[in-house]
Design a protein that fits this description.
This protein is of the alpha+beta class and 522 residues long. The chain folds into two domains: 272 residues, Rossmann fold (3-Layer(aba) Sandwich), CATH 3.40.50.1460; 195 residues, Immunoglobulin-like. It is built from ten helices and 26 strands. Strands 16, 18, 19, 20, 23, 24, 25 and 26 form an eight-stranded mixed β-sheet that branches. Strands 2-1-3-7-10-13 form a six-stranded mixed β-sheet, with helices on both faces. The protein is elongated, with a radius of gyration of 25 Å.
Length: 522
């Protein structure tokens, strides 16, 4: 056992060391809300104490701040105050505070449990989160209660660091506690009141909070769930650092995660991949611990926090490319490429294409904000045919159109532009582009061009883009800083002072979008 103890001690040391890494916090936004629930002490003496929950509370607060949640928009329920009725009441109260298009972060750290209830499931066992008073909130109930929030919010991220199963049946030391040095390592699952049948490892088909929410008609684009472990695994709590999953995800969110696909943004999936590597290293080599695999459900491409371009490693030197649109006046010559520099060790394995970047932005859309966009002609002859788009938004807002060229390397903001700057649109009213005095003729090369059509609640500050002029249009620079700026500007609104008040502009970052493809042919 000595080598195994040493391995776990080293893993804990790595988690502790990682917590020192910090990035500048983003500006707080009054459109962000958080509900943080942590239960380390239960009324039932048979439920094991989780001594790491105190650390989880700090970690969850840091996550919320990274997501731009103001301190006075964070509600915390701790230990015995977190009864089942109080948790239900706080979820209801959160719904009352959240405005259309806001963002929500919900965090739970505590015990999960399974019990026998033939009325709920055909196999007799159901799962839930254990409140401090011993009542369980089932996955079905949680789905029902959280679905209205998901329908109202632009995005909702739910992180639950708990077990939902008994892990390895018949081996108490594997599902209860270990002690390595002075640190207690405790499984976040309790058998209190559960028969042996419900202490068996669960099956993937028997539980899914994300599925329960879909059954309640929560839009999948609007929700992402981060679970500390798979349904048939236990999650571990350390008295020194808190939940292994929580500590790891916190550090990855705050700067350790990498832009693996070179898109310019860090997604929930990329944060979780980073965290998983840390959890695996921390638990490696432990007999009786059969692994803890974090899972992501819902919109894994959601970008939970924006910490600046420091997230994005510099790519290899860019190669200048030809302009892929034809305009009424000649475009300036492209800027010469900088001198090549060796890429850093953390550079992504590849750089996302402009079309892939637009697709990732499209993945951030709010599901209920429908945008109907159609091409009058989906195939354009190079040098002759002009692009024509009809757009009808479900909501009033601000219209933006970006184009990824058929060369696979260039990206342009087509609308608004120097010849048509008023991009306000009204719900249900069709807008036809291009407008008077300008058009967009297919310039080639032959191939597919991708168009992102966005209608945003709040305007975007296009001055934040790394850019150069291409006639009346704007060409976006796609080095590392340029990709990060593009993701930030398109994904985040720039609300005016006093937004959210009666008669004032919207504060929401939410947008609806459509993704179109047109073929440029000789």
């Amino acid at each position: 056992m000595k080598p195994a103890r040493t391995a776990l001690a080293l893993g804990l040391a790595a988690l502790l060391a990682g917590s020192a890494l910090a990035q500048p916090l983003p500006a707080q936004r009054n459109t962000r809300h958080a509900l943080i629930i942590g239960i380390g002490e239960y009324e039932d003496a048979d439920v094991p104490t989780l001594r790491g929950v105190v650390h989880d509370m700090d970690s969850a607060r840091r996550m919320a701040r990274a997501m731009a949640v103001p301190e006075d928009h964070i509600t915390v329920l701790r230990d015995r105050a977190a009864t089942a009725d109080r948790i239900r009441a706080e979820i209801d109260a959160l719904y009352g505070r959240v405005a259309d298009g806001d963002r929500v972060f919900i965090y739970y750290s505590g015990h999960g449990t399974r019990w026998y209830d033939a009325r709920i499931k055909q196999d007799g066992c159901t799962e839930g989160l254990l409140a401090a008073d011993g009542q369980a909130l089932t996955n079905v109930e949680l789905g029902r209660r959280l679905a209205p929030l998901a329908q109202r919010a632009d995005k909702m991220l739910v992180f639950y660091d708990a077990c939902f199963s008994g892990g390895v049946a018949g081996a108490p030391l594997r599902t209860r506690s270990l002690r390595i040095g002075g640190d207690a390592i405790t499984a976040k699952f309790t058998r209190a009141g559960a028969p042996e049948l419900c202490s068996q490892p669960s099956n993937f088909r028997t539980r899914s909070l994300a599925l329960a929410m879909q059954q309640e008609q929560a839009l999948p684009q609007n929700v992402v769930h981060i679970a500390a472990s798979r349904p048939d695994e236990v999650s571990f709590d350390s008295s020194a650092v808190g939940g292994f999953a929580t500590a790891s995800w916190r550090d990855c969110l705050l700067g350790e995660a990498r832009d693996l696909d070179g898109s310019g943004a860090i997604t929930a999936d990329e944060v979780t991949r980073c965290a998983q590597a840390k959890v695996t290293a921390a638990l490696a080599g432990q007999p009786g611990i059969l692994g803890q695999q974090m899972t992501v459900a819902g919109n894994a491409e959601f970008v939970p926090a924006w910490m600046g371009a420091a997230f994005v490693p510099a790519p290899p030197a860019e190669v200048p490319v030809a302009v892929a649109v034809a305009v009424a006046e000649p475009a300036p010559a492209p800027t010469p490429a900088p001198a090549p520099a060796p890429p850093p060790a953390a550079a992504p394995s590849h750089i996302a294409s402009p079309a892939a970047i637009l697709a990732q932005v499209h993945g951030q859309r709010e599901g209920s904000r429908r945008v109907v966009a159609t091409l009058r002609q989906p195939r354009l002859k190079i040098g002759r045919d002009a692009l024509q788009i009809d757009v009808t938004p479900a909501r009033s807002g601000h219209l933006y159109v970006a184009l990824a060229g058929s060369d696979g390397q260039s990206l342009y903001l087509l609308y608004p532009n120097d010849l048509s700057s008023d991009n306000r649109v009204r719900a249900g009213q069709r807008v036809s582009l291009p407008g008077p005095g300008w058009d967009i003729v297919a310039a080639g090369p032959p191939g597919t061009e991708t168009l992102l059509v966005m209608v945003t609640d709040a305007p975007r500050d296009l001055r934040g883009l790394a850019q150069e002029k291409a006639g009346p249009f704007m060409k976006t620079l796609l080095d590392a800083d340029g990709r990060a700026r593009l993701q930030w500007v398109l994904g985040n609104g720039t609300p005016a002072a006093g937004c959210g008040l009666a008669g004032a502009p919207s504060c929401s970052d939410a947008f609806g979008s459509a993704l179109l493809r047109v073929e440029a042919v000789p």
